[in-house]
């Protein structure tokens, strides 16, 4: 999914993909927070791994911190429901955080490469756990909200940029 940009001078903001990860949520939040100092906006670009994000990165400085709620919604395909599911899928950390839901619904846990990938690749008979943005991104049906065992968890992300770019922004 590619966003149409009004301003062709947008800066690039890289995040660990695919779309729908907590890192993607942090990138969306960071782009909004930085809008006053970067009015041209950002093109959000999903990367496969951290080394890809850091490729050619030199003389970096952290200049913004973004906090994201760690909440998992449960999803099925649009034409199925929770009663049709026998498998729960998510990243291993997501599965660990949704143990009660998995047990209550007698689901077998199957690990995915990421929570967002579990939502993107959802198949019949599966429930995927992922952030709230996954529903709209992948046109899947939410069958549970905030189903994680522990309420109130947060994760922090640090926005990095080349030192010279940050200096220009702060002038």
Textual characterization of the structure:
By secondary structure, the chain is an alpha/beta fold. It is built from seven helices and nine strands; from the N terminus they run E-H-E-H-E-E-E-H-H-E-H-E-H-E-E-H. It has helices spanning 22-33, 50-54, 92-97, 99-104, 115-120, 134-138, 163-170, and strands at 11-16, 42-47, 60-69, 73-76, 87-90, 108-111, 126-130, 141-144, 154-162. The strands form three sheets. A five-stranded mixed sheet has the order 6-5-7-4-8. It has a two-stranded parallel sheet with strand order 1-2. The protein has a two-stranded antiparallel ribbon with strand order 3-9. Strand 1 (11-16), helix 1 (22-33) and strand 2 form a beta-alpha-beta unit. The longest helix has 12 residues, at 22-33. It is elongated, with a radius of gyration of 18 Å. The protein starts with 10 loop residues before the first strand and ends with a helix.
Strand content: 25-35%
- Report the sheet with the most strands, covering strand number, pairing sense and barrel closure: 5 strands, mixed
Q: Which segments are poorly predicted (pLDDT under 50) over 5 or more consecutive residues?
A: 1-7
Cα-to-Cα separation, first versus last residue? 35 Å
What class would the helix/strand composition place it in? alpha/beta
The residue-averaged pLDDT reads 89
Secondary structure: number of strands: 9
Gross morphology: elongated
Tell me roughly what share of residues is in helical segments.
Answer: 25-40%
Our Rg estimate from Cα atoms comes to 18 Å
Q: Walk across the major sheet and give the strand order.
A: 6-5-7-4-8
Which H/E pattern describes the elements?
EHEHEEEHHEHEHEEH
Can you count the helices? 7
